[in-house]
Amino acid sequence: MGETPLLECVPNFSEGRDPAVIRHITEAVESVDEVSLLDVDPGRGTNRTVVTFVGPPDAVVEAAVRAGRAAVEAIDMSRHHGEHPRFGAMDVCPLVPVAGITMEETAAHAHRLAQRLADEVGLTVYCYGQAALRPDRADLAAVRAGEYEGLEARLADPAGAPDFGPATFNPRSGATAVGARDFLVAYNVNLNTTSSRRANAVAFDVRERGRVLRRGDAFTGEVLRDPDGNPLWQPGTLPAVKAIGWYLEEFGIAQVSMNLTDISVTPIHLAFEEVCEKAAARGLRVTGSEIVGLVPLRAMLDAGRHFLAKQQRSLGVPDEEVVHIAVRSLGLDDLKPFDPHQKIIEWRLETGARPGLVGTTVTGFVHRVAADSPAPGGGSVSALAGALGAALGTMVANLSAHKRGWDHRWEEFSAWAVRGKECHEALLRLVDEDTRAFDALLAAYRLPPDHEGRAEAIAAATRGAIEAPLAVMEAALEALAVTRAMAEEGLRSSVSDAGVGALLATAAVRGAHLNVRINAAGLADPDARRRHLERGAELEARARDLEAEVLAAVEERLASPG
Fold first, then answer.
1. Where are the alpha helices (DSSP H) in 147-267?
2. CATH code of residue 27
3. Known catalytic residues?
4. Which of 104, 211, 313, 494 could in theory staple to 396 by disulfide, Cβ–Cβ 3.0 to 4.6 A?
5. What is the pLDDT of residue 353?
6. Distance CA 185, CA 175 (A)
7. Residues 516 and 455 in one domain
């Protein structure tokens, strides 16, 4: 039970001046359930609008198709003029993995989107970035070379044939580039200077392209060239980074303004530290930084963990604390307040969302369980018990990592804390997952007896109602491993907490096993029923053994002097 897959889509449309056209496109996006429209950024000079929306992959692809259709209906490229490079009404449409999805999977969704835009909207489509079907089309600039004005001649050449859709020129819609890329972060680092020239010098130090080599003065000296007359370049230190220096009149400071085009190659925290180092070498000091637009949670967690590790502090603390460390370390509130719940994509999507069981109060959860409804029931309660047990093990690990005199062991306990955190986060998700599985089973049984797919629906829902408690058992068993390590090696003053954690984790395993047994009885396949029952019995037996080991360690340490 991993993270829910989440994609971002950032289509650019060749219209930035007519609010009615822009609204027609964004309404098409918003017509798709499960999609959240996060940002609409029109530009008059460029005559271009950048739209940002997020959701599950299927919903995002559907929204992109509808947006493409709306753009074709409302935009006539033969009349378009603007400063930005472009060759189509829906000019570019990149998909970006946000959470729970790989780049390879994202590229596959991009190909599916490209096919649908061709088949259902009639667009001429080229694939670029990680979705490129030809190596020479990986770079967007190469895909869009010649722009709209050169598109007709390009399509007349077999070498310019699109990847999907008609190879004939449509003067109204032009062509569309569909891609897959990593999240692009617009990130600016603040300097204690008003000199854009000095900020530029730092930008050239770090950006991948680097700077043109010159004789004498780095800005005005004679350009050095190779034997063919081409300028010689000295690469910068950060791959996948574009940068420039500028003066920010509003705040009276200069900045190094960067586009981090692949945060898996150069993440935010490494860009920040490299700018700090290069600025210091030029007599400058970094005072803070800012993220323009939205940022994925993983980028902030990576930054927070980086700075926690430098402090030799446990990495197994709650995400909110990790993000807080990132915000403070990067100085993200130097120029204006940084609200993580508005700036982090996943947290922004959660804002205002209807809370599940884990979003209720403790009192609310207890009252929901006590109500005259079969769900939430023993499965969700077992998952919650396991989450509490894992949390106790995590707590002991975090406390042990910070114990005076144990500095040399901080990584050991941090690793256990991370394992414990993964357990309680998984079990919290399973609190709601178990209830959803039970609701799906009830819905299948409520189908009319003559419904064509009733038997298949019941079988699928029964499997889900078994898999959820089995996942609870496996995660709680892992939590028991954490509590055992903490009972044996953690702070002696917290050994009782490790013991309580083990009792709760074992209760989770045994409780979830009861759910496996009662739901397995509904399986029509006797072999599948036997496999599930054997797996459940095996997990419970292992849990009982681990519990005994933990409690024995607890008793031993309680009996030992100080």
1. 151-156, 196-206
2. 3.30.990.10
3. 84, 434
4. 494
5. 54
6. 26
7. yes
